[in-house]
Design brief:
Blueprint lengths: L3 E7 L13 E2 L2 E2 H12 L4 E5 L2 H9 L4 E3 L7 H16 L5 E5 L8 H12 L4 E8 L2 H5 L5 E4 L5 E5 L19 E11 H9 L4 H6 L3 H6 L4 E6 L9 H18 L1
Parallel strand pairs: 1-4, 1-6, 4-5, 7-11
Antiparallel strand pairs: 2-3, 6-10, 7-10, 8-9, 8-10
Helix pairs in contact: 1-4
Length: 255
């Protein structure tokens, strides 16, 4: 097995939905759904990196591993790096590949987590995951991050705006072009992670509030694995309600 670590950054003070990682979904905290998916991927140890003892206690109460990191981390990736340093000192072990699974993706599948890791194992400096969408509401929603991809799978740009733009044609409709929706997971080689956290927040990163643009502006390559899973990140109270309805529908289907 490659020396791979999965870190789930879980900040308690979310702006749009405070405490979202601890909100209950089907009787479990949202972050616990993410942790279980990461464990099932079977790629390496899983740890939750948080800024608050309440999250730490919630994870440990369910048998998980968590570490406290500074409240001053500039981004989720900076929090992942801080957790990596703590764990390596404690365990006297070096990890060459790090997967950053955001703590608000309760429906992410273990196969997607593993797919991101496999891109790293094959030599990608950074990796993520995307899913195709032709839903005009998603394409136009600024809370849904879109990705422009090259044929090679390399990510060319991430934006809250609809990308790529579909130029109107006489024989076509006026709706948005099919797009790729970004899923909240990243992977890094150790070298790429060290490089990323050494960089100051970039202009585009601050403009779009998307930390991955820091890497693109510095010329770092990010490759994406494609998945067909239905994603639903928890960013707002409405998202949490939709997630609850979806979970209940899944349970009825299984029953």
């Amino acid at each position: 097995m490659k020396t791979t670590l999965v870190v789930i950054p879980a900040r308690l003070a979310s702006t749009r939905l405070p405490g979202k990682v601890l909100r209950s979904l089907g009787g479990r905290p949202v972050v616990e759904w993410c942790r279980q998916a990461a464990l099932k991927a079977g790629i390496g140890p899983v740890v939750v990196a948080t800024d608050h003892p309440e999250v730490l206690r919630a994870v440990e109460a369910r048998g998980g591993t968590a570490v406290l990191t500074s409240e001053d981390c500039r981004s989720g990736t900076d929090r992942v790096h801080a957790a990596l340093r703590v764990l390596e000192r404690a365990h006297r072990r070096r990890y060459e590949f790090i997967v950053n699974l955001q703590g608000d993706e309760p429906f992410i599948q273990p196969s997607t987590v593993r797919g991101v890791a496999e891109l790293l194992w094959k030599g990608a400096p950074m990796a993520t995951a995307v899913v195709a969408t032709a839903d005009p509401r998603e394409v136009r929603d600024p809370n849904v991050v879109k990705v422009a991809l090259a044929a090679s799978g390399r990510c060319l740009y991430f934006s809250r705006a609809p990308i790529p733009f579909k130029r109107p044609h006489k024989d076509g409709g006026d709706g948005p072009a099919p797009a790729f929706r970004h899923i909240g997971i990243y992977g890094y080689s150790r070298k790429a992670l060290e490089r990323f956290v050494s960089l100051p927040p970039s202009g585009l990163e601050k403009l779009e509030s998307l930390e991955q643009l820091r890497a693109l502006e510095d010329g770092m390559a990010i490759f994406a694995c494609r998945t067909r899973e239905r994603v639903l990140a928890i960013d707002t109270a409405a998202d949490l309600r939709r997630a609850s309805h979806r979970l209940k529908a899944q349970e009825r289907h299984v029953a």
